[in-house]
Design brief:
- This protein has 284 residues and is of the alpha/beta class.
- It is built from eleven helices and eight strands.
- It has an eight-stranded mixed beta sheet, with helices on both faces.
- The longest helix has 20 residues.
- It is globular and about 55 Å long.
Length: 284
């Protein structure tokens, strides 16, 4: 099967704009959609700045960066996704929002379109149930920052077809990503379950005074060869994002190891969200 070349990305935040960036660089014509012009302007500015960094470091030719940027159009109109071959949804991790988007897309796109979600924790089957084509819905979980991270987690919903999974793999691999496949649609999939369990236990150790945040992270880096410790990872991802993901997994699984500690809830209440707020488990 030839790789399709028209992509719609729904959501121009950090993840959506990153997916748009790597796809345009790989030759896809991309329409990036968000609800406000301000969000689209921020997303596009982030893409431009990222391309400039790659050019400055000699990792991307200036002409190729300009050509990639020219392949990205922005819009507030969801109808613009109508002729896309692949649609990737990358909005906030709330199932009601995602289901509403997929319900609308179902009435807009071609029968052959792959409908993908970038969710990191919500079961694909629940998102697909909002459509009349659950066999065409799949998870494509990219990692942040998308231009730097080499992984895409493909998630098969209860009714996802082999053809849809193959098309999603073809899309993700065309952007330079290595794929793993989650064959059973459990909340949190593989990667979010692993990092959530590690972050929850690390936060509990820190909360109860067993060790400092620095020492817990050093243990994981030097003892296990991790590039970054779990608490620094939480700060990078966003403590609120990880709290929300662990709550989703806990709600679905009722497995106590995913029950987030009170400390994480209080940090989010206080606005200590990590790097983006200047304070999390560390100060920035």
């Amino acid at each position: 099967m030839d790789v399709a070349r028209k992509l719609a990305v729904i959501g121009a935040g950090l993840m959506g704009s990153g997916i748009a960036q790597v796809s345009a660089q790989a030759g896809w014509d991309v329409v990036l959609r968000d609800v406000t012009d301000e969000a689209l302007a921020r997303g596009r500015a982030g893409i431009e700045a990222s391309y400039e960094k790659f050019v400055a470091k000699g990792k991307l030719d200036a002409a190729d960066a300009q050509a990639a940027l020219a392949r990205i159009t922005t819009t507030t109109d969801l109808d613009a996704a109508g002729d896309a071959d692949v649609v990737v949804e990358a909005v906030f991790e709330k199932i009601e929002i995602k289901q509403e988007i997929f319900r609308t897309l179902d009435g807009l796109v071609k029968d052959s379109t792959v409908l993908a979600s970038n969710t990191s924790a919500i079961p694909i089957t629940k998102i697909a149930a909002a459509t009349g084509r659950p066999e065409r819905v799949v998870g494509t979980h990219f990692f942040s920052p998308v231009p730097m991270m080499g992984l895409c987690e493909l998630v098969r919903g209860h009714k996802t077809s082999d053809e849809t999974l193959a098309a999603a793999r073809e899309f993700a691999e065309s952007t330079g990503k290595t794929c793993i496949v989650v064959n059973r649609d459990v909340a949190g999939f593989v990667t979010t379950r692993l990092i959530s369990a590690l972050v929850v236990e690390a936060a509990k150790l820190y909360e109860s005074g067993v060790a400092t945040a620095e020492d817990i992270d050093v243990a994981c880096k030097l003892g296990f060869g991790h590039a970054m410790g779990p608490l620094a990872t939480a700060d990078l991802t966003g403590v609120d994002i990880l709290l929300h993901a662990t709550e989703n997994i806990y709600t679905e699984s009722q497995d106590e190891k995913f029950a987030p500690p009170e400390l994480m809830r209080r940090m989010v209440d206080a606005g200590d969200l990590g790097r983006k707020s200047g304070q999390g488990f560390y100060s920035y």
